[in-house]
Amino acid sequence: MPVFTHFRRPARTADDTHAVAATDADDAPEDGTRPARPGRLRALRTRLAHRRGAWRIRHPTAAPVLRRATTVLAAALVLGALLLPNTLVALEPNRFARIPVEAVVGAVMLLCLPRAARRVAAALFGAGLGVLTVLNVLDMGFTEYLGRGFNVVLDWGLLDDAQSYLADSMGGAVAAWAAAGAVVLVVLLVLLMALAALRLGELLAAHRERAARGALMAATVWMTCVALGVQTFGVPVATRSASAALEAQAHRVVDTLRDEAAFAREAKADRFGATPGEELVPDLRGKDVIFTFIESYGRSAVEDPVMAPGVGRTLEASTKALAEAGFHARSGWLTSATYGGSSWLGHSTFLSGLWVDNQQRYRTVTAGDHLTLTKAFEKTGDWDTVGVMPGVQKAWPEAEWYGLDKVYDAFGMGYEGPKFSWSTMPDQYALEAFQRLEHGRKRDRPLMAEIILTSSHQPWAPVPTMVGWDEIGDGSVFHGVARAGEKPSDVIADTTRSRQAYGRSVQYSVTCLTQWLERYGTDDTVLVFLGDHQPIARVSGTGASRDVPVSIVARDPKVLDAIADWNWTEGLKPAHDAPVWRMSAFRDRFLTAYGSVPHPSGR
Fold it and tell me: What is the pTM of this model?
């Protein structure tokens, strides 16, 4: 005889009877008639109910415990998502001891909806909370690394850069697993949030009367706390943080779209856009002018108690050594358009004279013909223009916009040594290659160069050390230096070690650059060097400024006399109260100081 003829329906427990009654009541239309259901759906639900009932009979103690645990977990997930802040600084236990108005409104809404609509609304509400949680976590990361929140319009491409950075620092396998894990976690989070909201919605419907009273009471308490300003543990009891986070994201999107059009108009107007080449930087004719960016060289390196002593000694020693070689310097501060990363925004801001603080602005300005400081030299026809870009590892069409006739990227300088995490080669090698390939060659015209030094790029491990300039060769000598250095995995998650390593990396980059100038500089060499941005907040400190040091170094006293009215500090270390300009102000001040005549365009 077939087995299924012996199946006996298990006895229904009190919990089952209550659940079925609640479900039936929930399914019933308002007129009291029982809705018609397709036979197959009714049979499926009956089989599922039988299986649940059989499991509860076999596990009479575990069933209610599991049911309650699932409900508690669902409530914790939903409330946690509603109360989650979007900065690491605010991620404290007191933030989760509050009443979110969104929970009250959501409960009332679900109580008012019929069964099918309630399930759809609960699932969408939960999935939306999952997405909001992801955005809050991205805000935390971007605030920690870039000093700003995540922009849903512009910043998706930076996630690919983050994966590339992780691959360079920790290895390709780690980066691949991290990316895959992140995708899986996001999908699971959205799914779990939807299921949690569904669970709570069914619970509310099963206890409709008590849930309605509870929602009314919670709404009354929330409004009272708002009116009286009640606080616990230093934060308001009543909150609408989830709604505020959504509003902030919406405003960010609207502002981004508006800014795109406004900046496009701004980029067309250029004070020196129509200036003839013969009227650009006439006071620097015959000089080799070198603009050098030192990665992550910020005010914190000069003034933070952990990094400043070592960096300060390096700046003072380098100032003295340069003076003995006949060079003198003036230094000030510039406020960078970026923070913690996105170095290209700082580079383009400094050289274009426009405030380029996001990727859309960068795309807009580089697609146009706004005059860059480097292109001004090309426009004169009196300089050879080159770029030394050891961090560029793929096509770089921006070279034309920068006015660079020739670019040496990571693969064009003959380096045969090891990578130093993200940095493809030590700064000392990049500068020696520049000397060998360009600066040391005989030429008919002076040289204008843009150099990007990368050894002070995070994660600051291993940090290169100086070798004899005559020992550099093809860079193979740095294999031993890399092996002797710290591992990125040992430094990247340790704040103290990161700060110490960052300080050492800045000392190394400054030493490389100033020793190169001592060794190869001439009476006609003019060096302008600066940081592109501050390091990440974990290193620069909470609330750190966006200021970076900037210096001009030359042997010819006329070069520094031209900027005497800038009131910059003598030497390579700017005083704390030295003038602070927006980075975008430098281009026009520099062009004016060295004799350029304004001829506006695009107005």
Answer: 0.76
